[in-house]
Amino acid sequence: MTDDVRLYRSTTDTVIAIGAWVAVTAGAALVVLLGATRSTQQLWALVPLALIALLVGELFWRPRIIWDEKSITLVNPYATTTVPWTMVVDIDTRFALTVVTPSRRYRSSAAPAAGALTMPRGGRDSLGPDQKGGVLRKSDALGTDSGDAAYIIRGAWHRLVESEAIPLGRAGSDRARVHVHVTALALSLLLAAATVPALLNL
């Protein structure tokens, strides 16, 4: 494995984000048109539309998983967590792709587990990367966000282990780094607070 940074992002979430933004943009254009031809009071509708656009970005566009030779980074809504490979003891998929360390579990919003209506790409008999005892956990199946991400990231992790690129004995001493997206959080709260009076003024 090279020093290149690798990235995983859910195709489903990307499509949802783009579709939602197109709809919000169309709605904003309609609001501006109505405001110009009828009443500027209609422009209050831009506030909740801005909130929706921001939430779409945080919930569907921002989440991703990034990794290199030193660490794996889980970019989630409103927070990013970087976990050194030296701390990783497992990659789980029960509720979402989850990086397991000796002290805690870090879940990724970019790779949620399959829902009740989700069918893996190869059907119920799809072979996943972590089939134990002949029983396939649906969240490990290829063709699901959690299964695809786990297959890719486990492969990268195993290659690093096999090449002895991960120092041993540091799982208890190394620490994960958490960065809160303060600006996005503050803006979301501001727009949420402004949405109530905006709706009352429509």
Record the strand order, biggest sheet: 1-2-3-4-8
Percentage of residues in strands: 15-25%
Inertia-based shape:
elongated
What is the residue-averaged pLDDT?
A: 86
Please bin the fraction of helical residues: 25-40%
Described by its quaternary structure, the protein is single chain
Mind telling me the C-alpha Rg?
21 Å
**What is the count of distinct domains?**
2
Number of helices: 4
Q: How does the helix and strand content classify structurally?
A: alpha+beta
Please describe the biggest sheet, giving its number of strands, its sense, and whether it closes into a barrel.
Answer: 5 strands, antiparallel
Overview of the structural elements:
- The chain is α+β, with helices and mostly antiparallel strands and 202 residues long.
- The protein folds into 2 domains: 10-61 and 182-200, no CATH class; 65-180, no CATH class.
- 40% of the residues lie in helices and 19% in strands.
- It has 4 helices and 8 strands.
- It has helices at 11-37, 46-61, 145-162, 182-200, and strands at residues 6-8, 64-67, 71-76, 79-84, 90-92, 96-100, 105-112, 177-180.
- The chain has a 5-stranded antiparallel beta sheet.
- A hairpin with a 2-residue loop joins β3 and β4 (79-84).
- The chain is elongated, with a radius of gyration of 21 Å.
- The chain starts with 5 loop residues before the first strand and ends with a helix.
- Residues 121-132 have low confidence and may be disordered.
